[in-house]
């Protein structure tokens, strides 16, 4: 099983937070937990060794802790609180009761080491934007699925089929497990890169990844979206929005709108019919 480290960065101010978030998102971070006075970044051990030499960590106080795989379940169980997304959807762990509010879409997750619990701003925004998109009868591509949280929501919103990929083996294992505990039958999840994925004209693409991957995907993703289709992107820091938008507009996508939560943006695009 892959070994991970958590790096606790003690922050001096919000400028340092913004710079660090920006650098981490381009350095192969697995997930980021934002707290009031610090940021915890999770990396694979090998990825951290590479990132450490690339990141400018001068003047930043940080501590590296090896994440013990056997303790991971207990760790997330202790810290996982249910999330209510705009009174539309409720994300909880199996040991939480369902929301007392009626009518919310119920999603059960055991994230283990995968990213995607709706606690992060990017996932939260992707899910709240999904509320406004018609999924019934549609075919969806979940690019960088993590826990499969977006795929599960897509199926619960009526999608006819969801194809989910992630480069990480543990994410794919976890995605399959979460799809199963939610009773989802329309999600196919595979460990693949975009280049290894068969082209198909999906109606909707969901891609909450990071700046580097999104920039590289602007051109090839067009072969996975049908004319008139919708592309929802996140994993984009506020200051990177223009850069990402320019790359997608240059490939012929049309900007629909974007929303912001904290330092992060979620962008909706379409391709013309
Ligand atoms: C920020 S997480 C998003 C997870 C989930 N979709 C969500 O919205 O919460 C990004 C995921 O993309 C995966 N990923 C990163 N680079 C990738 C690539 N080149 N191809 C496929 N997946 C990738 C990571 O392993 C991670 O699980």
Could you characterize the architecture of this molecule?
One of its GO terms (cellular component) is cytoplasm. It is an enzyme of class 2 (transferase). InterPro entries: Ribosomal_L11_MeTrfase_PrmA, Ribosomal_PrmA_MeTrfase, SAM-dependent_MTases_sf. It comes from Portibacter lacus. Belongs to the methyltransferase superfamily. PrmA family. This protein has 273 residues and is of the alpha/beta class. It folds into two domains: 73 residues, YebC, transcriptional regulation domain (Alpha-Beta Plaits); 153 residues, 3-Layer(aba) Sandwich (Rossmann fold), CATH 3.40.50.150. It is 29% helix and 33% strand. The protein has eight helices and 14 strands. It has a seven-stranded mixed beta sheet, sandwiched between helices. Strands 2-3-1-4 form a four-stranded antiparallel beta sheet. A three-stranded mixed beta sheet has the order 5-6-7, with helices on one face. Helix 4 runs parallel beside helix 5. The protein is globular. The N and C termini lie far apart (45 Å). The model has no long low-confidence stretch (mean pLDDT 90). It binds S-adenosylmethionine (SAM). S-adenosylmethionine (SAM) binds next to helix 4, helix 5 and strand 9. The site of S-adenosylmethionine has 22 residues, from helix 4, helix 5 and strand 9.
